[in-house]
Amino acid sequence: MKATWIFRTAVLITALLIGFWSADVQAAKGSFDQTYSVDEPFLLDVSTGSGSVDIRAGDSGEVTVTGHITVRKGWFGGGSENAEELVEKFEASPPVEISDGLVRVGHIKDRAFRRNVTISYEIVVPADTRVKSHTGSGSQDVSGVAGPVEVDTGSGRLNLTDIGGPVEARTGSGSIRADGIAGAFEAHTGSGSIRLTQVAPGDVKVTSGSGSSELHGVVGALRVRSGSGRIEVDGEQTGPWNLGTGSGSVHIDLPEDAAFTLDAESNSGGIVVDHPVTVQGKISKRHLRGEVRGGGELLKIDTGSGRIRIE
Fold first, then answer.
1. pLDDT tier at 23 (50, 70, 90 boundaries)?
2. Is the overall model pTM greater than 0.70, yes or no?
3. 157 touches 89 (CB < 8 A)
């Protein structure tokens, strides 16, 4: 009987605490939508502690910034009024700064505000804009700008579409998708897949702690490293290619007349080459060295486990 009473009391206290907590963290919300005249070209520099960022190309000569604000009530020790007043503050004076050649969005100076205020941004810029964008957490989408583009997030996916210059993308966890990249590409993720479609030459460098790497239309030097996950590449070597994965298959598709120097090694899984190879040294199922059509740029591949296939 006593045990039942204690149990019921504990359940009641827990329910009350959850209720108080839920009421305490209810969010005050608001938004702003501002358009600014700008000289071109310029650098767009975006920062938000948490929240998403969506950047896309629009009309020349202006920038439109839309912000979606969330402030949790009770975080400032003064009750719900403080949260609502803070929302009104950001609605009246959005965190946007414009100077010669630079548009800064979301750079909040007060550390308490940075910790407790979430703003997600939708930003429309001229097509010839350069972009630098950071989120502590949250996804980012960038499309239609000339670049270069540099984006990073502690966690969350990154989507990049139709970028007219080099791209650098980093995420602690989450996938990276890059389609229509006209230039060099560098991507790093602690976990998650990486997918690239390159439409103009440029060197490519990709690192993934875990997850697959799928790279299409690569023209340039290439370096791929993965702790685990398959690697698929098609394109044309105009520099050395170096690919390695701790576990996972490697599949490469090259032009029919490709000439290269091959150094491929797989501890398990075998090596298949659909090109004529002049073998150097001993023939081995695990390690193959040789020249294809007289040799050329180095194609080096290694995998701890998994099949290697070169078509």
1. very low
2. yes
3. no
